[in-house]
Amino acid sequence: xxxxxxxxxxxxxxxxxxxxxxxxxxxxxxxxxxxxxxxxxxxxxxxxxxxxxxxxxxxxxxxxxxxxxxxxxxxxxxxxxxxxxxxxxxxxxxxxxxxxxxxxxxxxxxxxxxxxxxxxxxxxxxxxxxxxxxxxxxxxxxxxxxxxxxxxxxxxxxxxxxxxxxxxxxxxxxxxxxxxxxxxxxxxxxxxx
Length: 193
Ligand SMILES: [Ca+2]
Prior knowledge:
Blueprint: H1 4-7, E1 14-15, E2 23-26, H2 35-38, E3 46-48, E4 59-62, E5 73-86, E6 96-103, E7 114-118, E8 124-130, E9 150-156, E10 163-176
Antiparallel strand pairs: 1-10, 2-4, 3-10, 4-9, 5-8, 5-10, 6-7, 6-9
The protein binds calcium ion.
């Protein structure tokens, strides 16, 4: 004999998987900020050149195709970026700062920046946000649509001999389905009781 407690399935968080951008809305101060460069981990980079041109002039990305179910609760957003700091083929002597922000209304409004600083030339995945980090606001599912969601990318690299570079960028959204979630009950009959 089974009980209803055993048959119930509690709604659990799901995620979109790692999504790549379909559209570079604005290149800002970047060189080679193209979907070809940043959608594959292949050591072909978008770069923020020396002279700090990306600081205050970020690139803007859209069309991630998340496909969030209507009514879902947004639990967290991660921007996962394979990045490095190149100083004429060497590690950088001091840090560059890599910067992300997100928009929910087509680029009119933005979250606060999230940043990570590093000096190594070797690529590594730097993740800003997380599966339980909503970047300081409550998101609706429609704000993750291709029309509304934007990701902003930039570097601050004030020393003249350094530049940041971006090999591969992905965004992953963690959500819980709406409408009471995926609660299900197996068929039951009087003989169960
Ligand atoms: Ca690449």
